[in-house]
Every structure is written in structure tokens, then in C-alpha cells.
Amino acid sequence: MVGIATPDAKQSESYISTAALFYTFSGNAKDEKVVIRLPHVWKDVWAELSEARKAQIDEQDRDVVRGLRALVRQRHDQELEDGVIIQGAFRGRGAKHTHDSGDDGGQDRSRQSTANGEYFQKIWAEKSSTRKFQMMLQSRMQLPMWNFREQVLTAVDENQVIIVCGETGCGKSTQVPSFLLEHQLSRGKPCKVYCTEPRRISAISLARRVSEELGENRNDLGTNRSLVGYSIRLEANTSRETRLVYATTGIVMRMLEGSNDLQEVTHLVLDEVHERSIDSDFLLIVLKKLLIRRKDLKVVLMSATVDADRFSAYLGGAPVLNVPGRTFPVQVRYLEDAIELTGYTPADSGPDKMVDLDDDPAESEGESTKSDISKSLSGYAARTRSTLAQIDEYRIEFDLILQLIAQIAVDEHLRDFSKAILVFLPGIAEIRTLNDMLLGDPRFAKDWLVYPLHSTIATEDQESAFLVPPSGIRKIVLATNIAETGITIPDVTCVIDTGKHREMRFDERRQLSRLIDTFISRANAKQRRGRAGRVQEGLCFHMFTKFRHDQLMSDQQTPEMLRLSLQDLAIRVKICKIGGIEETLGDALDPPSAKNIRRAVDALVDVRALTQAEELTPLGHQLARLPLDVFLGKLILYGVIFKCLDMAITSAAILSSKSPFSAPFGQRTQADNARMAFRRGDSDPLTIYNAYLAWKRVCQSAGGGGKEFQFCRKNFLSQQTLANIEDLKGQLLTSLADSGFLSLTEDERRALSRARFSGGRGRRQQQFYDIPRRVNLNSDNDVVSASVIAWSFYPKILVRDAPGSKGLRNIGTSQSISLHPSSVNRGRHDLRWLSYYHIMQSRAVYHAHEATAVEAFAIALLCGDMYSGVIVLDGNRGRFAVPDWKTMLVMKVLRTRLREFLTRSFKQPGKLPTAQQEKWLDVWQRIFTQDFQDRSTAGIMSKG
């Protein structure tokens, strides 16, 4: 602008502002509409600038064309000069290349194939000739599966897909993959068998067992001395010599996201398909398409229930092989029998009985159901019937379980069943509770071993649970539904089944995920009691009534694809490149409704994970790598970018589990006051995060073990839920690091691993991992934290249309919304804009949960779209009008630079910002460190 002058300073400022607007907005058709808001004289200036830019671009284009013409002429002259030599040389090279590949290449491949065949046979000859292998072979031959060895191998040779339906204990999980391995190697054929398992502990324990059965030493697994390995998230224990890999289903799904169609795999075994996990059902969709391209791939499905015919029909009539189990009779008893045997009377529901704030008190049995249960108890003592009437079957009576175990151990008719007791519980929190109660009970202080089994517990601490204890010692194993079919504890003689498991459910219409405790199905109950009859006649106590089992329980568990969010699957469909989302998911064994699929796609478009054409955005690619829904996934990604990772990842762990706040009966007011004492930033997530930080400080203080209990009791916090949150936080950090979005040094990775897996059997000191300071500078900045939460949860925004009014409106649906009674913002009518995580309907009222007050400037900065200085939210349901040019310019530039930085971060995860981006981040940091009331941008006007 050198050489341009204006009459006065005011016009000079206006000229510079117009030029700045032109260079910021021009080039984008929708943004150039800002010119219509300029005064007439400055519209003329805009037109002059536009003409000058066009002339400059035209001149640059002419220069480019002149350069290209010169280059073409130069190239043409060079070709005329050297063309004969070049063509002759290439003809000579081509002839030589054709001759070589026609002779030596074919001979080399032939020799290699022969050598490989001899090599495989040699491997198998050495392995099968060892004394240890022959000894293990004798025990393998006792399994029912062994009698079907030839039938399995013949069926695999003659069919691309077969289904093995084997009862619990038949040995299918260990023997079928071994049969395939041995059959291929003994014939000198290449072999790479992958066997999918739904849980990592199953993959590890089965790999160890098969390695042992092949005569390999304990420490050989996964080394060059072993044919067997395992691959789970965070750990791949394989080598070049591995020919059989036990892998979690998620690992194989990740392999399928590649482009080589599992070319290295010769046989794929899908275990536990009856569980109908969302991963295994989606894997079947992908396999149906893959089998068309990979005619040489052999697939074996294995199920523990009798619904194999459905899988057969789904896969084009694949043959089904039914294998009986090897079990002894099991005595089956129910809750009423346990009460009758122990004389149990529940403690008075006094102030110590805790209720989860997320529980719905309306969820209770109807009077008719209770009456029907009472009628079914006519043969029991009056005291038993009275006690049963007081018990809520939805809750776990831990005291009853303790009394029952103690009674089984001393009863002359039941004592023989107490050698090894397996207790099924819903999750890690219940495992910890019962574990601590058993270890603190003097009745189990001597001659008893207690082993908790869960995927969050270190592998080496769980291995002893599979060993038979010395004579005179009895053991109790505490497990979730992982012990139904996924793993086998061979010496179990008694099962105590709480009848519940933890299940995730999602409402696509309300976009709501919840992890709930629910009753198992009759098929699950059959699997659980079957675990008691492997070595002798067994005993099973189901801790629910026989009436519930016979009349109220469902036959089969609902497939996860019908009860979980479809957003993750939609992203996987795009990553695997197997067709349209609705078309692909509609091909499932139990397809979700088209309406739910459409809602999932629309939700992904709203959060910018998918484009309108249903293509993955850079953000979508990153979200696909995280085990969270898209909103919580965005939260931790933004936590890294905006340097508030501890707040973000802790909040994500809390919101994907449940609130640690709880309340005793009759003390709800005191519990609410305790919650309000942790209030922070007019935000429910930040309030819970504040309580978590206080708990963490207590745990890390000297003598924190004793103080922790007192702190939690005083502040109405669940010690177990807080420990679960810390465990989940470690898992999320590991996933984030594995995805490459969070860069950790080797020392930081080792520290994270120690924090996650340092807990052992019995009581433990809570371990923590301190997130690196470089990505955690802003976790104590409430303005930044609230803004990041709002940006992550957008378009989940509430607005108060009239300042001071009681009503809030959901900008996404225009519905009237109330804050949940437990919200720290309840009654705060001065708050204009709030983000929320989910909405629940209670009777006729819609309640927003996990609400956070957020400034208008923060929403305007990164939410919605900007048109001619007006920021539009969610299809014009919310609008911000920018009051002047200067504010418009600031908003436009900062929005553009931050979005450029976000896009670069998603496209190139882990890459450091450029010097220019660091400057803009510094500007952003300074703005968000100031008080919003002191900024000129506070003048943004908002419209409902």
C-alpha cells in the first residue's frame, strides 16, 4: 500500500480495514457477501482491489504459460537429438529383462516352493517327536473334540467355511486351531492360522495352553522357538516362526482395514461367535465380501450354543459340525435355596446403603410379578419367603454370597463342592468389593486363596487362578462373563452366579449411550452353571429366583449391533472401503433399522467426522482409532491440541462410565451439598473432575490408604468408581498414544504401563500416571476447559432465549429442556449458553445431563458456520451477529487459523506446530486467559 494516501486518519483506518477484510474474505463465494454490508464508497475500493488482484493473477498465469512453452520446446529438441540412442537402449533392456524372467525366475520360485514344503515338514517332524508333545497328546486325546479331528479337517478341505458348534468343555478353542496347524505343516503346506477371541485374557490363556500342548517350554511362546503367539491391543507376542496366532477380534478388524485382504492368513477361526459382539458381527459382514475375493481363505466359526444354523444360513449353507461336551451333572439351585440354606436376613436399609445417582428409582418389579414370585415359593419356610420379599433382585447381596460360601464349605452334603468356587459378577467394581470382603473376613483367612480375574488386572497376577491349589487349600475365583465361555478354569466344582452382566445400550434417537447392569439370558445362565461340571459332579447357585429364570429372562442375549451406537461401525465401513454405510450394515446377521443407521450417519456429519457425501474427514480418521463415541473422542483429541488433556481424558473416562457421587438413603441433601462443595466453572464435568483431583491428592499423600476411605465417606464419593475411572483413564491414554496423536517418550510409556498394571491380587495402593505438562498447561483454566467441552460436544448446545427466563431450548431439536436436578447449574437463570453430553427423558420432562456453561465468544469461535459476519449454528437454529468490522475481522482470522491448525493436527498427528501456528496459538491462549468481560469481543450479540 506504499504510495496510497487518505485525507485523514479515520479514512486511513477505514481503508486498511477494508483491505484487511478483502484479503481475509475474498476467494470464498459465501464469505465475499460481506461486501454488501460496506458503505458505497468502500464497495468501490473493494471492486478496485478485486480488479487489481485479477490483473495480478492473469499476469502470473501468463508467466506460467510462457515457462511451460519454453520447457516443452527444450524437451522436444532433446528428444530429437537423443531419441535413437534412448529407444535402442530400452529395446535392449526389455529383451534382456524378458529373457531373464522367463528362465531363472520360474526356476527360483519352483525351488523356493519345494524348499518351503520340506521346511514345514521338518518343523512339524521335530515338534511332534518330542517326549513332551507325546505326553500332552495323551491328554488331548481325552477331549471330545479329538474324536472329531478327521471330520473337521475333511470339512475344511472340502468347504471354504464350516461351523463347529461345541458345548462348553469340548476343547474346540484349543484343538481346532491346532488341528489346522498340524494338518498343514505335516503335508508341507504354508500355514498362518489366526484365531479371534473377544477378550485379551482369552487370547493369552489359550495361546499358552496350545503352546504347552505342542510340547513347547513355558517361555517359548511368541519366540522363534514356538509356533504359537498372541496379539492383543498394546502387545504382539509373535515372531517370524509363528504359525498360529490367538488375537482379539479388534486386532483382526484392524488388519482388515488394510488393503492386502489378509493375504498372509491361510485360515481364520472365529471363536465365541454366539456372543454376538458388535466386532464379531461386523467381522462376518466383511468376511462375506472378502471370501469372494479370497477363494483360498478357509474360515471356521465356533459357537458354544445351538444357534449355529442361523450362522450357516447367513454364510450360504456352511456345514455345521456338532460336538458334545464333557461335563458331569450339575445341581442347580436358586436365590430362594441360598436363603433357605443360610438363614440369611438382609441388613436394615439404613444410612450405609448406597444408591447410585444414575439409578432410576422407578425401575422396580410390578406388584403382579412379586405376587407370582411369592406363589412359586409355597414349599419354602415362611422366613425364607419373608426375606425374599425384602430383597431387590436387581442388587447384589454381597453378605449373602459370603454366608453362602462359608455354608457350602462346612455343610456335610456340600463340602465336596467347595474345592474351587467360581463367582460371576458384573464388573471390576463388584469384583473389588467381594475381593476385599473375603480378604477381610476371618472365615477365609486360612486355607483359602482368592483370585480376581479381569482384563484390567496384570496378566501375571491372574495366571495362578488356572492352577490347581495344593491339597487342603481351597480357592475362590471372582470373574465377569469372561469365564462363561472365553476362558476355562479346569477345576471349578461350584458356581455362584449373580445373574447379571454389564451391558452398553444406545438410543440412536436420543443419541444416548449408557452402561447398565442387566440380567443375563437363559443361554448365559446355562453356560455359567456348565462351568461347575468339568471334573466332577458340580453345584450352581443362581442368585435370582427360579421364577425369574423360567418366566422373565430372555432366551438369548440381544446382539450388540441392535443395542449399541452405530457411529463407530459407520466409520469402520468407510475405513474398510466395503461399500455404502446403510447397504453394508443392512447385510448383517441381525441388521439394525435403516432409521438408526441414518441417524448415526447424520450424527457423524454434524460432528464433521463424515462429509455430506459420507466420506471420512481427517477428524474422522482420528476418531476411528479411539475406543470412544465421537463426542468423547473429540474431547480428548481437543484436549491434546489445546493442552488440557488431563481434564479432557478424565472427563471422558467419567462420562463413559458413571458419576462417582452417590447418596445414602435419607441423606440426599447432605450428598448434594457435598457435591456443590466441589463446584467448578459452572460445569458438571468440571465439578466431578474437581472431586477426582481432590481424591487423587488424598491417595498420593502420606498414609493415603486410610485417609482415602474417610475422604470418600465424608464427601459421598464411591471409592470403587473413582478407581475404575483411573483404570479407564489409563486405557484411553494408551489408545491415544498408540494412535500417534499423543507423542510419549519411552520413559513416559513405561511409567504409563507401570501405573496401569502395578495392581496385584488383594488390596492395592492406587497408582496414578501424571500426564506430561506440555499437553496439560490449561487443565486448570476453566474458560479453556469449558470451551473445549463445548467444541467437542457441538451441536449439543442449549440456549436461554430470553435472558433471566427459566426455559432452555435445545438448538438441535428446538425442544424445551430442563437441567437435571443434580446439575450444579440448576436454578442458574443467568447462564445463556450451555453445552451438554446427553439428554434423558423422565416421565414427560427432558433432562440435560453433564451441562457446562460456556461463553458466547467461545461458541462463535469454533462452532457453526460464518456467513457475511453472522455465525449460524445447526441450520440457523442459533445465530451470532457480529457488531462491527473489527470484531468480524478478529473472529474471521482466528476461526480460520484455528481450523487450519485443527485440520493439520488431524491430518498429521504428532507433528509439531509451525512457527506461524505457534503464534496464532499464543494469540488464542492470551485471549482465553483474560476475563471475557474485558474483551472487545464480548460485544458479540446472540440470537436464539
List the helices and strands and how they pair.
Elements: H1 9-25, H2 40-128, H3 131-140, H4 149-158, E1 161-166, H5 172-186, E2 193-197, H6 200-213, E3 228-232, E4 235-237, E5 244-248, H7 249-256, E6 267-270, H8 278-293, E7 298-303, H9 308-314, E8 320-323, E9 330-333, H10 335-342, E10 354-356, H11 367-375, H12 382-390, H13 398-410, E11 420-424, H14 428-439, E12 448-452, H15 459-462, E13 474-479, H16 482-485, E14 494-497, E15 500-507, E16 512-519, H17 522-530, E17 538-542, H18 546-552, H19 567-576, H20 581-585, H21 594-606, H22 618-623, H23 630-641, H24 645-655, E18 662-664, H25 668-677, H26 684-700, H27 704-714, H28 719-738, H29 746-757, H30 782-793, E19 797-799, E20 808-810, E21 816-819, E22 833-835, E23 838-842, E24 845-849, E25 852-853, H31 856-862, E26 865-867, E27 870-873, E28 878-881, H32 885-907, H33 915-929, E29 941-943
Parallel strand pairs: 1-7, 1-8, 2-5, 2-6, 3-5, 6-7, 9-17, 11-13, 11-14, 12-13, 14-17, 21-24
Antiparallel strand pairs: 3-4, 10-18, 15-16, 19-20, 19-22, 20-21, 22-25, 23-24, 26-27, 27-28, 28-29
As laid out across the biggest beta sheet, the strand order is: 4-3-5-2-6-7-1-8
Q: Which structural category fits the helices and strands?
A: alpha/beta
On the 0 to 100 scale, the average pLDDT is 82
CATH architecture of the largest domain: 3-Layer(aba) Sandwich
Task: Give the biggest beta sheet.
Answer: 8 strands, mixed
Provide the β-strand percentage band: 5-15%
What overall form do the CA principal axes indicate?
A: globular
Report the CATH topology name of the largest domain.
Answer: Rossmann fold
Work out the helicity level: 40-55%
Note the total helix count.
Answer: 33
- The CATH class name of the largest domain reads Alpha Beta
CATH superfamily of the largest domain: P-loop containing nucleotide triphosphate hydrolases
Number of strands: 29
Low-confidence stretches: 81-115, 349-364, 932-939
Provide the number of structural domains.
Answer: 5
Instruction: Give the termini separation.
Output: 41 Å
Computed over alpha carbons, the radius of gyration is 33 Å
Keywords: ATP-binding, Chloroplast, Helicase, Hydrolase, Nucleotide-binding, Plastid, RNA-binding, Transit peptide
Domain Helicase C-terminal: 409-577
Region (Disordered): 91-113, 345-373
Biased composition (Acidic residues): 357-366
